[in-house]
Amino acid sequence: MRNVKAHRTTKKSTSTGNATAVAGRRVLIDADGVVTELNDKAFEAAMNAAMGVMGRHRMITTGQAAKLMNCSPRTVARILDSGRLPFTRNGGTGRRMVDVVDIMEYQRQERTRMRESLDAMRRAAREITMDDDEMAAYVAQFD
User: Fold this and answer.
1) Neighbouring residues of 72: CB distance < 8 A, sequence distance ≥ 6
2) How do beta strands 35-37 and 59-61 pair?
């Protein structure tokens, strides 16, 4: 990935190798000095993406989230659609972006929920008086 920076030019003009940025225009300047003019929506998307990567929280795509969560991208999409995990849309591409901090919190909550469910199943098994071998076989299918 090449280094790029987005900014609103404030000088009269800035010459950067291949092009000139004019004052008041929103541009993207890549590592080679190539200047690309951006409309307001594209500039906002570039700034949001930069803040997502450089800010306190790191925003990642659903594909990256799937790798982190050890599941398929479709499963991540279902979780996002259900509202259990917040996301934002990247202005330029419309891709869903997820905060890594939110993923970690979601995973913590899911582990807690699964542990509580398993404990409830164990209590239910005890209440129906399963012997130890039957209970072990029953519980093993959920561990």
Assistant:
1) 66
2) unpaired
Residue type, 83: G
pTM of the prediction?
0.50
Strand order in the sheet with 35-37: 4-8, 26-30, 35-37
Residues 46 and 61 sit within 8 Å (Cβ to Cβ): no
- Other C-beta atoms closer than 10 Å to the C-beta of 98 total 26
pLDDT digit of tens for each residue in the chain (143 aa)?
444 444 444 443 444 444 455 556 778 787 777 888 888 778 777 776 766 555 556 889 999 999 989 999 999 999 999 999 999 988 778 889 999 889 999 999 999 999 999 889 888 877 887 777 887 888 888 87
In this structure, the number of other CB atoms found within 10 A of the CB of residue 120 comes to 10
Residues near 135 by beta carbon (within 8 Å), at least 6 away in sequence? 122, 125, 126
Residue 4, CB half-sphere, CA atoms under 13 Å: how many? 17
